[in-house]
C-alpha cells in the first residue's frame, strides 16, 4: 500500500508561472515537503495539506522523509523552485530511493513535474539572451569542488556559451563570482552584456543590465541569477539579445529575400555547415561536369586562391601593385592541395582607380573570357563583374591583369569607389585613393562595405552616400560616415569631420574599417553597426534624423 512522490518545480515564484500539472499535484497531495521560503511562496494554493518544512541545508532529510511517508501510503509533493531537475530535489529523491532498494517497477510511483527554471524566467525579463547555445553553472562549492567549477567556467567561456550562473554569491561565498569574472575576462570582451536578475517574478524582483567589466559593482546575492552574453550578444536599449544567426541568410529589414525557400538549405548557401566543410575536404578529382555542379568555394576564396597562385609565380613580383584582396596562409595551403576542378568564378574588374575608360583590347579580353558560358555583368553598384566557369582561376586573373585590369574579389569585402578626378585633371588626391585601394580594397569584412573617394567638393560620384565617404577639398579631406544607399531607411552619410590632413586620411579610414571588422556582427552593415556602437574611431553616431511624415504624395 505505497503512496507516491511527485517532485514539483513550481517555477520562479508567481502563481501565473506554475503549470497546471504542478498546481494539481500540490493540491491533491497529502503532504507538502519543502524549504521554508518555497513553502511560503505556494502556501496560498494549499487547502489542508500536511506541511513538512525544513531549512536550507536539509535536503537529504527532506528526501528521506518523503520516501518514508510515501512508503507509508501517503501522496507526497516535494517542491523545488524553478525546475526540480535543475539544482533541485529530483535527483536527490531518486538517489535516496535507490539507496533504499527501490526500483521503478515498484508500486511506489515517482513523477517529476517540470517547471520554469531561473535561466528561462530571468532571460525573459532581460530580453532574449539565451537564443543560442547556453549552459548553467552553479557557483556553489558546497557539494562540488571549486576546481571543477572553475574548469567548467573556463570551458564555457572558451566555447562561447551564453552562461547562466546560479548560486552566484552568498554571505560567506563571496570570492567565487570574482574569480569567475576574471576567468571570463580572459575570453570575452569587458563590454559583454551581463544581466543580473534577482527574485524573478517575485515581489522583490530587480533587474540590472550591466557588462562583464562592471558586474561586480552591482548587488549580487543568493536570489540572483547572472546571465553572461556570448560574443554576439548585444543591448538594444534595455533589451539583451543574442542573435540566433538568421542574419547569415536573411535580410531582416526586407520582405523580399535574397534566397528563396528552396535555396536556403542548399549547401552553397551554408558554407559554415558540416556538410559544406565535408564536401570541401572530401572532394576527389571529379569529372568536369560533376565538379562544376558541386563547386562550393565562394568567389572571394577563389579570388584569393587565384591571387596566391599569381603571387607564387615569378611574374607576379613585377605586378604586385595590382590588387586582389589579401592572401592568408590557409588559401596558400588550399592552392597547393586543391584538385583542378571547374568552378564558378566571379571577379570585379576596373581599368584603374581613377581611370574609368575601358580600351578596346580590354573589352575584347572580357568578351573572350566570357564567350562560352560566362557573362559580363554590370551591377547595381556600377561595377563590371566577370562571371565564368573555369578550371584555372589563376590563368583568368593573369589574363585580366595582362590586359591592364585591376581585379577585385566580390562578396563581403571592402570596395573602394573613386571618382574619375575630372578625367584625371584634378589629380592631387589620386595617390590617396590608390593607397586606400591597395590597403583595403578586397579586404574581407562582415558585410560589403563601400568607401567612396571624391577628388573635389562637387562629390559628383556620390562619396557622401556611401558607408564611408571622403571628399578632397583645399588640400584636405572631409569625412562622411554611415550612408545607406538602399531600403526605406536610405540616407546619406553624415559629415563627421572637415579638413583632415591628407597624410592622415588613409590611416584613419583603415582604423574605421578595423573597428568595423572586429566589432560588427556577421552580416551587420556598417550603417547599423555605427548606430549600434555609437562611436567609431572617436566619431559619434548622429541620432537626430527622425523621418518627417508627409501625407500627400507630391508634397504640395
Ligand atoms: N531549481 C531552481 C534552481 C535552484 S538553485 C531553478 O530551476 O531555477 C538556486 C539559484 O537559482 C539561486 O541562487 C538563483 O541563482 C536561481 N534562482 C532561483 N529562482 C530564482 C528567481 N526567481 N530569480 C532569480 N534567480 C533565481
UniProtKB/TrEMBL annotation:
Secretion signal, residue range per the UniProt entry: none
Domain Nitrite/sulphite reductase 4Fe-4S per the UniProt entry, residue ranges: 421-535
A GO molecular function held by the record: metal ion binding
Coiled coil residues, start to end: none
GO biological process: cobalamin biosynthetic process; methylation
UniProt pathway annotation: Cofactor biosynthesis; adenosylcobalamin biosynthesis
Entries under InterPro entries matching the protein: 4pyrrol_Mease, 4pyrrol_Methylase_sf, 4pyrrole_Mease_sub1, 4pyrrole_Mease_sub2, Cbl_synth_CobJ/CibH_dom, NiRdtase/SiRdtase_haem-b_fer, Nit/Sulf_reduc_fer-like_dom_sf, NO2/SO3_Rdtase_4Fe4S_dom
Keywords: 4Fe-4S, Cobalamin biosynthesis, Heme, Iron, Iron-sulfur, Metal-binding, Methyltransferase, Oxidoreductase, S-adenosyl-L-methionine, Transferase
Domain of life: Bacteria
Database matches in Gene3D superfamilies: Cobalt-precorrin-4 Transmethylase, Domain 1, Methyltransferase, Cobalt-precorrin-4 Transmethylase, Domain 2, Sulfite Reductase Hemoprotein, domain 1
CDD domains: Precorrin_3B_C17_MT
UniProt domain Tetrapyrrole methylase: residue ranges: 7-214
Domain Nitrite/Sulfite reductase ferredoxin-like: start-end pairs: 340-403
Protein name: Precorrin-3B C(17)-methyltransferase
Organism annotation: Sulfoacidibacillus thermotolerans
Organism lineage: Bacteria, Bacillati, Bacillota, Bacilli, Bacillales
Amino acid at each position: 500500500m505505497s503512496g507516491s512522490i511527485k517532485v514539483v518545480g513550481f517555477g520562479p515564484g508567481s502563481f501565473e508561472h506554475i503549470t497546471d500539472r504542478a498546481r494539481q499535484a500540490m493540491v491533491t497531495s497529502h503532504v507538502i515537503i519543502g524549504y521554508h521560503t518555497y513553502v511560503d511562496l505556494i502556501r496560498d494554493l494549499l487547502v489542508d495539506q500536511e506541511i513538512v518544512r525544513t531549512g536550507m541545508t536539509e535536503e537529504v532529510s527532506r528526501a528521506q522523509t518523503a520516501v518514508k511517508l510515501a512508503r507509508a501510503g501517503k501522496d507526497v509533493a516535494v517542491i523545488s523552485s524553478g525546475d526540480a531537475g535543475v539544482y533541485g530535489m529530483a535527483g536527490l529523491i531518486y538517489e535516496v530511493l535507490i539507496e533504499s532498494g527501490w526500483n521503478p517497477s515498484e508500486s511506489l510511483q515517482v513523477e517529476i513535474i517540470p517547471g520554469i527554471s531561473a535561466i528561462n524566467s530571468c532571460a525573459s525579463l532581460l530580453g532574449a539572451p539565451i537564443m543560442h547555445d547556453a549552459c548553467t553553472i552553479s557557483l556553489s562549492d558546497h557539494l562540488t569542488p571549486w576546481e571543477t567549477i572553475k574548469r567548467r567556467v573556463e570551458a564555457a567561456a572558451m566555447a562561447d556559451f551564453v552562461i547562466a550562473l546560479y548560486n552566484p554569491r552568498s554571505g560567506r561565498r563571496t570570492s567565487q563570482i570574482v574569480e569567475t569574472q576574471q576567468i571570463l575576462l580572459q575570453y570575452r570582451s569587458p563590454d559583454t552584456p551581463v544581466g543580473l536578475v534577482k527574485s524573478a517574478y517575485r515581489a522583490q524582483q530587480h533587474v540590472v543590465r550591466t557588462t562583464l567589466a562592471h558586474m561586480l559593482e552591482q548587488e549580487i546575492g543568493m536570489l540572483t541569477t547572472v546571465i553572461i552574453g556570448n560574443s554576439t550578444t548585444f543591448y538594444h536599449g534595455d533589451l539583451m539579445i543574442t542573435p540566433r544567426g538568421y542574419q547569415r541568410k536573411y535580410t531582416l529589414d526586407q520582405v523580399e529575400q535574397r534566397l528563396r525557400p528552396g535555396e536556403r538549405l542548399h549547401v552553397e548557401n551554408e558554407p559554415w555547415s558540416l556538410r559544406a566543410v565535408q564536401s570541401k575536404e572530401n572532394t576527389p578529382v571529379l569529372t568536369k561536369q560533376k565538379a562544376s555542379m558541386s563547386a562550393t568555394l565562394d568567389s572571394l576564396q577563389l579570388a584569393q586562391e587565384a591571387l596566391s597562385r599569381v603571387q607564387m609565380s615569378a611574374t607576379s613580383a613585377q605586378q604586385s601593385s595590382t590588387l586582389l584582396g589579401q592572401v592568408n596562409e590557409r588559401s596558400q595551403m588550399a592552392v597547393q592541395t586543391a584538385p583542378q576542378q571547374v568552378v564558378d568564378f566571379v571577379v570585379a574588374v576596373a581599368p584603374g582607380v581613377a581611370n574609368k575608360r575601358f580600351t578596346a583590347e580590354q573589352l575584347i579580353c572580357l568578351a573572350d573570357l566570357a564567350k562560352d558560358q560566362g557573362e559580363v555583368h554590370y551591377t547595381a553598384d556600377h561595377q563590371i563583374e566577370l562571371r565564368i566557369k573555369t578550371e584555372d582561376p589563376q590563368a583568368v586573373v593573369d589574363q585580366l591583369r595582362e590586359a591592364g585590369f585591376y581585379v577585385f574579389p566580390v562578396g563581403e569585402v571592402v570596395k573602394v569607389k573613386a571618382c574619375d578626378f575630372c578625367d584625371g585633371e584634378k589629380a592631387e588626391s589620386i595617390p590617396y585613393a590608390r593607397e586606400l585601394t591597395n590597403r583595403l580594397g578586397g579586404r574581407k569584412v562582415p558585410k560589403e562595405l563601400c568607401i567612396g573617394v571624391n577628388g573635389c567638393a562637387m562629390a559628383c560620384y556620390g562619396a557622401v552616400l556611401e558607408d564611408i565617404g571622403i571628399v578632397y577639398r583645399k588640400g584636405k579631406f572631409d569625412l562622411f560616415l554611415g550612408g545607406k544607399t538602399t531600403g526605406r531607411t536610405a540616407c546619406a552619410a553624415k559629415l563627421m569631420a572637415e579638413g583632415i590632413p591628407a597624410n592622415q586620411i588613409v590611416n584613419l579610414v583603415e582604423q574605421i574599417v578595423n573597428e568595423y571588422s572586429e566589432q560588427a556582427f556577421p552580416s551587420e552593415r556598417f550603417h547599423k553597426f555605427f548606430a549600434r556602437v555609437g562611436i567609431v574611431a572617436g566619431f559619434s553616431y548622429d541620432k537626430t534624423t527622425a523621418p518627417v511624415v508627409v501625407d500627400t504624395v507630391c508634397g504640395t
